[in-house]
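Review form for a predicted model. The reviewer records the input and the model, then writes brief findings.
Reviewer: anonymous (R2)
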Amino acid sequence: MVVAAPQYTAQTWPISGALLQFPGVDALGRSVNDADASVWEGVFGQVADAGFADVDLTDSWVRPGDLSGKRLDELKLAADNAGTGLPVISAIRRSVIDAKNWEENLAYSHRTIDAAVWLGCEVVSFGLHQALTAEQQKQLWFWTVVGHKDPVGDKETWGKAVSRLQELGRHAAEVGVLLSLELYEDTYLGSADSAVQWTFALLSS
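Model under review:
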C-alpha cells in the first residue's frame, strides 16, 4: 500500500513550530508526559503566539507513543484549545539500530505511529541518530563534541536499518500515515548521497 501525500499549495503548506526548546521534565524533574493538560496547552499557546498555526510534536518534550488513549485525547484537546494543529510527530534519538536499545526503540516507534493515527497526524518522522553521549551532555552545544557514528561499510548493520525501517514503513502505510526519514550527520542518512542509496534500498528490498 502506498500512502498518497496530501495535496498542498504554496499557500496551504503547513509550517510547524518544533518543540525542541521545551524540556521533557519540569523544574522538579517530573516528566512532562505526566503533567496536567493545562501545561501542554500553555506550550501550544506559546507556539501559537509566535505565529505558528501548527506544531511539530517533537518527542523530546512529550512522547505521544507513551501516552494512553485518554491522555492522547487530552493532548489533542489542549492543542485544539490553543488553536494549533498537530500534523506531525518527530521521534528523536530512537535509532532502530542502537546496539543496546533497538528493540525498545522499534516498539516505541510502532506506538508512535499508532499515536499519530489517534491524534490525526499526517506524518511521523524517524531518524537513525542515537542518544547523546555523556560528554555531549556536558556541553552547552552538544554538536561541538563527536557523538555516535553509524559504522561505515557494515553491511549487517546497514541491512538491519533497512529492514526495520521498512517494517515501520509498512505499518505507517497500513494506517494511512506518511513516514519521513530525518537526515542527520554521521548516520546512514547523513548526506544526500546516502539518502539516495536509502531510497533504492528501501524500495527494492
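Findings: The longest strand covers residues 85-90.
Further findings: The two ends are 15 Å apart (CA to CA).
Recommendation: see findings above.
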